[in-house]
């Protein structure tokens, strides 16, 4: 899994799987943000599976689904709120990391 640090407490990546989550917790992340809509691609884990694994690993979890190329104001605000409420480092992901990157950039423009 390729990790890209965007800010002091924000890292992005491509798709993670439930089996990856214990390693995410061991790397001291406190919040996972899933930016993929369920059923976007065959074989993709469901948000509910990821949330269950996150809770078992004692991580906070947010699902902010964004269709490719469709970053909305509501999703941007939800992302900004999640980041503001994070108690530590955040790992935000989609299929390739582009959507959390776009949300982070858009959130920086909110007034």
Description:
By secondary structure, the protein is an alpha/beta fold. The protein has a single domain (4-35, 45-58, 70-107), classed as Alpha-Beta Complex (Protein-Tyrosine Phosphatase, Chain A), CATH 3.90.190.10. 35% of the residues lie in helices and 21% in strands. The protein has helices spanning 21-26, 47-56, 73-85, 98-107; strands spanning 4-7, 10-13, 29-34, 60-63, 89-93. The chain has a 5-stranded mixed β-sheet, with helices on both faces. Helix 3 (73-85) packs across helix 4. It is globular and about 35 Å long. The N and C termini lie far apart (33 Å).
The CATH level-2 architecture is identified as Alpha-Beta Complex
Q: How many distinct folded domains? A: 1
Percent of residues in beta strands = 15-25%
Average per-residue pLDDT, rounded, comes to: 95
Q: Strand pairing plus helix content: what structural class?
A: alpha/beta
Give the C-level CATH assignment.
Alpha Beta
Number of strands: 5
Shape: globular
End-to-end distance, in Å?
33 Å
Q: Low-confidence spans: pLDDT under 50, at least 5 residues?
A: none
Strand order of the largest sheet: 1-2-5-3-4
Q: Look at the structure and name the CATH superfamily.
A: Protein tyrosine phosphatase superfamily
Q: N-to-C SSE series? A: EEHEHEHEH
Number of helices: 4
